Amino acid sequence: MTTYRRMTQIAFILLVFLMPVLNIFRYDTATKELIIFGQIWGLGLKQAFYADHSLRGAGHVALQFLLKAVLPWIAVLAVFPILGALTGRFFCGWFCPEGTLFELADYLTLKLTGRRSLFAKRPNDPDAPGGKKLIHVLVALLSLLVLPLLGGIALTGYLVAPKTIWSQIMNWNFTFGVKAGIIGVALYMLITSILVRHSLCKYICAAGLMQMLFGWASPVSLRVRMDPARADECTNCRGCEKACFMNVLPRMNKRDISCVNCGECIVACNRELGAGRGLFRYQAGEKPSPAAMEKQESGVPGKSCAAPAGPLHT
């Protein structure tokens, strides 16, 4: 599952990089035109319509504005609430480029310092095997230099024609707009990946917050659930907690708005109990698990709590 998740994250990053290059979506500040799939997206109004002050002319302008400006913008804004209501924060865990960058920063920090955060060690920090520290230092330095610059170039391409940006890079002669765009995005990526990371996902990101709220309220939203009927099979290895970079306690089995449905707790539990025998699974809504339904049908009461007692919460 982790491999598949990495593939979707990389594929989405490539899509973000290629959209302005292929004219799939970008706004050209030079011509002041919005380009979608190679076509200029306008209101479809000729100058004569603005000069027509009749009721028919005003109605045509209003209709075109509704169809070409208001409704498309509403559709764009509705994407993340709909995703949240159906899939929770699945996008955050499987596609989000910023989340991918933060996970890379977590990984390198863990390899270099023995903990995910730069500031303090947390109880759920995973074990960090020693060795190859020099390689990780070089990878971290290369990431700090290359990734923010590539991100700055890619995202500036949404406002300035990519061929213009690359021409300026090749000639090392930048306009103010291109220079400001690349430097601004690069600094943002550096600051968030080094200092902020997943706190941005929890408290700042508008797309994440919309998914969070609608996913929490939706009765059919996708969630990662632990099977309470099999709670006694838990070995208390805490692998699920250590795998969670959002600091969720998966065994509490509650609707945690920070969960991004990455499935790393599923992978960790399968690693501990054996492939296909883990206690966690993806589930839409709150329906009982097959094991719980089986116990109910046989008259065996299920567990009243989702995790074993003892040292779990120490």
Tag the structure with descriptive keywords.
disordered C terminus, 13 helices, 314 residues, 3-stranded antiparallel beta sheet, 56% helix, mainly alpha, 7% strand
Distance between the termini: 29 Å
Share of helical residues: 55-70%
Integer count of domains? 2
% residues in beta strands:
5-15%
Strand order of the largest sheet: 1-2-3
What structural class do the secondary elements suggest?
mainly alpha
**Count of helix runs:** 13
Q: Can you summarize this structure?
A:
With 314 residues, this protein is mainly alpha-helical. Helix content is 56%, strand content 7%. The chain has two domains: 137 residues, no CATH class; 93 residues.
Could you explain how this protein is built, in words?
The structure is a single chain. By secondary structure, the chain is mostly helical. The protein folds into two domains: 2-22 and 88-203, no CATH class; 221-313. 56% of the residues lie in helices and 7% in strands. The protein has helices spanning 2-21, 47-51, 55-87, 90-94, 97-113, 133-156, 162-171, 176-196, 198-203, 206-217, 239-243, 264-273, 290-298, and strands at residues 25-28, 33-36, 39-41, 222-226, 280-284. It has a three-stranded antiparallel sheet, with no helix packed on it. A hairpin with a 4-residue loop joins strand 1 and strand 2 (33-36). Helix 5 (97-113) runs antiparallel to helix 6 and helix 6 (133-156) crosses helix 8. The longest helix has 33 residues, at 55-87. The chain is flat.
